[in-house]
Amino acid sequence: MRTLVLGLSTRAIAESAVRGGNNVITLDYFGDQDQRALVENYSLLRDYGLPFNAESLLKASSDLKFDSLVYTSNLENHPDLVGELASRAEVSGNGPEVLCRIRNWSIFREFCRESSIPHPVTLLPGEEKMASETFNWLLKPSHSGGGSGIRSWDGRRLKGPHILQAHVDGIPASAAFVSNGKRSVVIGLTGQLIGNRELGASGYSWCGNILPLPIEYAKSLWILEEVEKMAARITQHFGLKGVGGVDFIISRGADGQPCPFLVEVNPRYTASMELMEWAYGLNIYSLHMKALDGGLPEFLLSGHLNGPYFGKGIVFTRQSVSIGNTKDWLDMGRRDIPFPGEEINAGRPVCTVLAKGNTYHECLSNLLRNAASVRRETGDIMED
Predict the structure, then answer these.
(1) pTM tops 0.70
(2) What would you measure as the largest C-alpha separation in the chain, in angstroms?
(3) Domain 309-378, what architecture?
């Protein structure tokens, strides 16, 4: 069976699929050097000269032959596209009906209330008058991804597909789990890197993850138990299948205990999952496919909450750069590697860097050191 993997970036899941002996082709925006050396890849940027959007993916995929498909970010925001693709091939993941429900904020916030899942207060267009001065409010695109477009609300009426969400102080985090439509198994907890200046990010932009959480074991175990309950309720209510993830903020609950406030559900492969593959020896693509047939892994995350630590960071440019020799980049722990001679505009991703450490701070320090090395090589020197 020939499977098409498509989305904004497909390199990490393609690596997993190849390790598992699967026959896949990929369609994404970047089409970076290391992915093209690994699998048959088609790039919206390089091969079609198209921007990244749902229409571009649909148009480009019409040229390809495949029997099934697996999608990544941000196709969960386009159930109509997933439905159209499903008319051509089997969707190995959550179908458009599931996506329509779980990415509908009116439905989702009501589910959180009924299921007693802590979550930031969320307001829809027309409900701006309900924005209490008790909170600071964030303006978010209704179908966000990677923190793009999130900013402080200026009090004006919502226009277009946006929501308001109360800001929750705490540690930004994420979890990955595997579901079979009825039950789920949590396979990883990570701290998120948000707006990290040394990685070239700002504001609420996601720029990486570190596995496991940057908190002591007892608190991590408490968070794991709460996230396991959360994932179980989400799976049962929405019938999720395959791998997926949740974003949450670790804050304090009414009882004073650390509490995960659910921000968003990603009903597909997530960027943090390659860290679990690296750290725990899991094959995420295989777990995904087996879960679609009802199988779940016998995996206990509670034995992996103390470290060592594994990190990934996305290095964004601060100025336009020209890429030189990238021959040794793969061996240096870099991924999503651009081609020699490529021109990358300011604010765009250069590559992904990976790092390990015995502690969270050692891992983060190594990660940022690797990012600084990329900057030196590309001439993108950070300003003080």
Answers:
(1) yes
(2) 57
(3) Alpha-Beta Complex (3.90)
